[in-house]
Amino acid sequence: MRRDGPVANDTRIWTDVDFDRDGKQISSLRLPFSSDRSAYGTIPIPIVCIRNGAGPTALLISGNHGDEYEGQVALSKLARQLDAGELRGRIIILPALNYPAVDAGRRVSPLDQGNLNRMFPGDANGSPTEMIAHYVSEVLLPLADIVIDLHSGGSSLLYLPCCLIRVGKSAAETARLVELMHVFGAPIGSISDGSGGGGATTLSATAQALGIPALTTELGGGASLSRAGEKLARDGVLRVLKHMGILPEAIVEPPEATRSMRVDGRQAFTYAPVRGIFEPAVAVGDEVEAGDLAGTIHPIAGPSEPARSVHFAQSGLVACQRAPALTEPGDCLFKLVVDVA
Length: 341
Hints:
It is built from 6 helices and 19 strands. It has helices at 70-81, 99-104, 128-140, 171-184, 203-209, 227-243; strands at residues 14-15, 23-32, 42-52, 57-62, 89-94, 146-151, 157-159, 162-166, 188-192, 214-218, 259-262, 269-271, 276-280, 287-288, 293-298, 308-311, 316-322, 326-327, 332-339. The chain has a 15-stranded mixed beta sheet that branches. Helix 1 (70-81) crosses helix 6.
């Protein structure tokens, strides 16, 4: 059910977009940021609102982290191509949500070092990144019937393309999310209990608290643009929009089968124990067994010091691996997933 209502009166972000007006509006959110260079300055965050009468609302987001590119390109293409006459309802697109991070090509904002997807539900009077999170939580999410937050591995990770959901508050809610995950059509569907990653501080966690279905993705990584990941983002979003009746006449490719998987506790993650150059022994998509060699860390001091072998603590499918070779103690080298029973 769509939740209409007044815009939160304590947000400091503003826009000239009228979310209730039919047609296609291309504009910006204005994030206040006072600096030496611009005392009364604002930072524009691109936003597109496309509406055609009554119907569901989809909130489509990328650039939550600035160095993740597949979603940014897919949503920018979609925003250019869609016409209001094709819709039944409303689509709100933010292709570069954390614009300062996107502009810098970084995971976190250069303004405050803020990791947006670890700052929800945000703070209207907080740092710039907290203000963005607050606007999404208090203004945009209450308008939405579904939110799709497109991520990739960024600069530090390479990811097997996947669609992620959180377990719902009820069996019916979980079933609905699983249905949408399969409609999206990523080869891997990861079902989380919400305890890992950013926990309660993510966009998807805030959406769930508001009763809004949320799909998240991982589509590539290494700060590069995967053509396959971008295509999956575009096709998956279109499939969901058609499924929900927002784009009833969209021509979409049928989804491929999705393998339902999950992270099985903290031992699913393999971390670097020492500093050095990491030589992986496996790649994303490989199946491994507990005790298998994950890789070798070579000390940068050279052969006068011994190399350090790293092994997997459990069995599973390699869902992601570290992209840069140079590692520090505590860097995540691999994440494994296992089939849902």
